[in-house]
Amino acid sequence: MIYAGFWRRFVALIIDSFVLMIPMAIVMFVVGIPIGSTDFTSSFSPDKLQSLDPEQMQELAMQMKRQMVELIPTIMLMQLLNVLIWWLYYAIMESSPLQGTLGKLAVGSIVTDLDGERISFIRATGRHFGKFISGLVLCLGYLMAGFTERKQALHDMIAGCLVIQKESNIKPLYDLPE
């Protein structure tokens, strides 16, 4: 069993980030339309600001504050959808027969349990949300993949998973450093 090293996993993350930009852009467009309807820029024209007396300036500030408060539910919804999309993408792909996201597959890696078997959706979910813990303190949980014997990040250890190189007769286009 050949374990996937830090740099290989990092390249997979970059690829997955690009893949996920597409559904995220759609979500931002659909859910974020109300954001575009809030016009802050017209309030900040230098000519307009210089012509305001203190009372008008205070009213403008209150209006902008109300507009920003109105955006909070939209921003929260967009964040929730972001978490949902990333979770489903990772958990479904890593627990599927493919055993990896598109990024992992592109670099020839798969996710397994400690015995080299396919992981369940529940384990993939635990692994995904364990990434929040891995990222808490300067992303040290992620960096662990470069230093542990089985090249496990903290979230891999939490979920009892390994990221290994998929056995294949196909030679990769690039040899990535481990």
Summed up, what is this model?
This protein is mainly alpha-helical.
Index terms:
elongated, two-stranded antiparallel sheet, 8 helices, 60% helix, mainly alpha, 178 residues, 2 strands
Q: Which helices and strands occur, and which strands form pairs?
A:
Layout: H1 6-31, H2 33-36, H3 46-50, H4 54-95, H5 102-106, E1 109-113, H6 121-134, H7 140-143, H8 154-159, E2 161-165
What does this structure look like?
The protein is mainly α and 178 residues long. It has one domain (6-164). It contains 8 helices and 2 strands, in the order H-H-H-H-H-E-H-H-H-E. It has helices at 6-31, 33-36, 46-50, 54-95, 102-106, 121-134, 140-143, 154-159, and strands spanning 109-113, 161-165. It has a two-stranded antiparallel ribbon. Helix 1 packs across helix 4. The radius of gyration is 23 Å and the shape is elongated.
